[in-house]
């Protein structure tokens, strides 16, 4: 399995950043950056990373099973994450969540039939002073109104 | 290109020290930093002995800004400098305590300030390697930090023989992958080593056995970011910005039902009343303050009346049986449904419990079930009492503070707003089928 030249370069430089013999430290960054290209934690990806770090696939699975951002299945082209934790809740983040579910007809960690959009109800994303907040893939959107959310979803659907 | 995190101008009552470059054009660039006293603290530290650096930090009365509030200089002094092992610096940028969004501001607007703080810490314990662990959701901040690190290498502020001082230091970022638990220092170290983020038994503390089982200084982003100004101004002058026993300023995140939400730099000891009325412009819609969480959702809650009389510092909050925490202030107005708030908070901790310790794993699950029942209007008086009993049994019975972090706010909300839980009792009857859904094991 090969990755883009940029990612191969990143991986090549990564090992030197950790003490000799402790290269397993690369595991989480490798998986996260690879996921950006592959989409989710495929068997092939996990085997490849295990091989490169000289660890067992079981060790990779242990880690993949633990971290929320490591996707166990293919998600939408755009992953829409809506925060409903306390500071966003106080600004009706829960209503944004309900609205997105209804509009898209999917729920938590589900993908639309056309594969364009997936939804996730996320825990605090560190945007509390700009609530209610959402993340569109890695991009933050602050002070989101229901109308903005509607428009965002319509645009993504038609993209 | 990144969303702005600042109001156009600071509030006149803010005490701007860490944020002095935030509003400069190109505040992220090393040239901006160098033109604004950047790296001067490190150059000063390079002329000092490690003991002198640590004494300066001790004199500043800087306490850990991640939430625990442990005296920073003291923490650094625990690192055995004579140990033959390499020493490391680890930055906790896993900011994920609900209500907290200040490290984001520090990295987005002034990444070099953080690098300088790390260099000074490195110099104080003879460390030559560091990692900045940043939560995975903050990918754009990892990119910003990577860019700043590359700039610092290119300009000789990282790498070998930094600016001819003879001091070497290597630094890189390390991404998290979505786990609140990794904000706890020992779980963070496990995660850094490529493992599941479960806590380690302590002692030994990270100062003795931290990253890769070597002596490690591990502090929050804001703690490191405060260090350059401490060296530049002198510890005593920095301490004088705050109050006795708690030096300096604190980035405070105003969130919830307040007119002017935002991240503000306030001197420690700033009165809550002024913070809400003057800085925050009062409670939204002219309503009354019902409750306040002073520093992230794991702090015991205060009623509006209690909060009003307090100051934003460690001792004042401790006297009121809560904590200054991380600086994430959550304000709730008179219309807030406290049962819902308690349920949302426990849902978070249940989701984030790493499952290592049974009292936390099971306790958070059962608290969530009980609070769900109470919120749905099918709870009983016994359920309210059971919430208190359960939470009490979690306290102090786990490897890391997540169990306490879940129990403390829950207990305090039930105790202080019990009438709201009682008001929801028996409001609804459900069929057995409906009930079984509410108590289902899958939660």
Give a summary of the structure in a few sentences.
Chain A is an alpha+beta fold. Chain A contains seven helices and five strands. Chain A starts with a helix and ends with a helix.
Key phrases:
heterodimer, A: 159 residues, alpha+beta, Arc Repressor Mutant, subunit A, B: 443 residues, alpha/beta, Rossmann fold, Ubiquitin-like (UB roll), de novo design (two linked rop proteins), 3 domains, five-stranded mixed sheet, 19 helices, 42% helix
> Distance N terminus to C terminus of chain B?
40 Å
Task: Report the total helices of chain A.
Answer: 7
Task: Assign an overall shape of chain A.
Answer: elongated
In percent, how helical is the residue content of chain B? 40-55%
Q: Mind telling me the CATH superfamily name of the largest domain in chain A?
A: Glutaredoxin
Work out the helicity level of chain A.
Answer: 40-55%
- How many whole angstroms does the radius of gyration of chain A measure? 18 Å
Q: Please indicate the percent range of residues of chain B in DSSP E strands (runs of 2 or more).
A: 5-15%
Biggest sheet of chain B: strands, sense, closure? 5 strands, mixed
Please work out how many helical segments of chain B DSSP would assign: 19
CATH architecture annotation of the largest domain in chain B: 3-Layer(aba) Sandwich
What does this molecule look like?
The complex is a heterodimer of chains A (159) and B (443). Chain A contains 7 helices and 5 strands; from the N terminus they run ααααβααββββα. By secondary structure, chain A is an alpha+beta fold. The radius of gyration of chain A is 18 Å and the shape is elongated. The two termini of chain A are 30 Å apart. Chain B folds into 3 domains: 222 residues, Rossmann fold (3-Layer(aba) Sandwich); 85 residues, Roll (Ubiquitin-like (UB roll)), CATH 3.10.20; 105 residues, de novo design (two linked rop proteins) (Up-down Bundle). Chain B has 19 helices and 11 strands. A 5-stranded mixed sheet of chain B has the order 6-5-11-8-9. A 4-stranded parallel sheet of chain B has the order 3-2-1-4, sandwiched between helices. In chain B, helix 2 packs across helix 9 and helix 3 crosses helix 6. Chain B starts with 29 loop residues before the first helix and ends in a 5-residue tail after the last helix. At the A-B interface, helix 2, helix 4, helix 5 and strand 5 of A face strand 3, strand 5, strand 11 and helix 14 of B.
């Amino acid at each position: 399995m090969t990755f883009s030249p940029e990612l191969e370069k990143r991986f090549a430089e990564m090992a030197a950043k950790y003490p000799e013999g402790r290269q397993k430290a690369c595991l989480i960054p490798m998986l996260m950056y690879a996921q950006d290209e592959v989409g989710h934690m495929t068997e092939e990806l996990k085997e490849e990373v295990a091989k490169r770090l000289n660890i067992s696939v079981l060790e990779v699975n242990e880690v993949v099973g633990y971290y929320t951002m490591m996707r166990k299945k293919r998600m939408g082209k755009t992953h829409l994450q809506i925060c409903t934790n306390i500071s966003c809740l106080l600004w009706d983040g829960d209503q944004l969540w309900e609205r997105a579910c209804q509009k898209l007809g999917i729920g938590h960690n589900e993908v639309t039939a056309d594969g364009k959009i997936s939804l996730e109800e996320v825990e605090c994303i560190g945007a509390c002073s700009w609530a209610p907040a959402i993340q569109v893939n890695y991009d933050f959107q602050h002070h989101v109104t229901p109308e903005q959310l509607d428009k965002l979803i319509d645009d993504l659907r038609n993209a | 290109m990144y969303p702005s995190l600042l109001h156009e101008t600071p509030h006149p009552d803010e005490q701007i020290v860490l944020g002095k470059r935030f509003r400069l054009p190109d505040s992220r660039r090393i040239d901006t930093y160098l033109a604004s006293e950047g790296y001067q603290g490190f150059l000063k530290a390079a002329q000092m002995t490690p003991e002198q650096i640590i004494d300066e930090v001790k004199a500043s009365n800087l306490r850990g800004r991640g939430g625990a509030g442990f005296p920073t200089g003291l923490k650094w002094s625990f690192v055995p400098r004579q140990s033959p092992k390499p020493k490391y610096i680890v930055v906790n940028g896993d900011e994920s305590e609900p209500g907290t969004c200040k490290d984001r501001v520090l990295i987005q607007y002034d990444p070099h300030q953080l690098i300088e703080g790390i260099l000074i810490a490195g110099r104080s314990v003879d460390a030559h390697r560091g990692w900045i662990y940043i939560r995975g959701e903050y990918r754009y901040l990892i990119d910003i930090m990577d860019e700043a690190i590359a700039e610092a290498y290119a300009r000789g502020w990282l790498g070998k023989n930094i600016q001819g001082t003879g001091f070497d230091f290597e630094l890189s970022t390390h991404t998290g992958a979505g786990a609140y638990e990794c904000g706890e220092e020992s779980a963070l170290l496990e995660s850094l080593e490529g493992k599941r983020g479960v806590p380690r038994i302590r002692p030994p503390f990270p100062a003795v056995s931290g990253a890769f089982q070597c002596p490690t200084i591990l502090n929050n982003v804001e703690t490191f970011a405060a260090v350059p100004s401490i060296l530049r101004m002198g510890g005593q002058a920095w301490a004088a910005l705050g109050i006795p026993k708690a030096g300096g300023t604190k980035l405070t995140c105003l969130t919830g039902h307040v007119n002017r939400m935002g991240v503000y730099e306030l001197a420690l000891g700033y009165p809550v009343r002024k913070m809400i009325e003057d800085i925050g412009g009062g409670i939204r819609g002219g309503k009354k303050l019902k409750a306040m969480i002073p520093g992230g959702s794991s702090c015991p809650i205060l009623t509006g009346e209690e909060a009003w009389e307090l100051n934003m510092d460690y001792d004042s909050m401790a006297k009121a049986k809560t904590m200054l925490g991380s600086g994430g202030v959550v304000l709730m107005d008179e219309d807030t449904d406290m049962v819902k708030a308690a349920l949302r908070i426990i849902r978070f901790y249940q989701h984030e419990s790493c499952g290592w310790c049974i009292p936390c794993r099971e306790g958070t699950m059962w608290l969530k079930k009980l609070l769900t029942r109470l919120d749905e209007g099918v709870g009983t008086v016994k359920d309210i009492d059971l919430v208190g009993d359960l939470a009490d049994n979690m306290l102090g019975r786990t490897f890391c503070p997540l169990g306490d972090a879940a129990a403390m706010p829950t207990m305090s909300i039930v105790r202080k707003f019990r009438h709201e839980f009682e008001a929801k009792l028996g409001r609804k009857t459900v069929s057995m089928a409906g009930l079984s859904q509410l108590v289902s094991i899958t939660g």
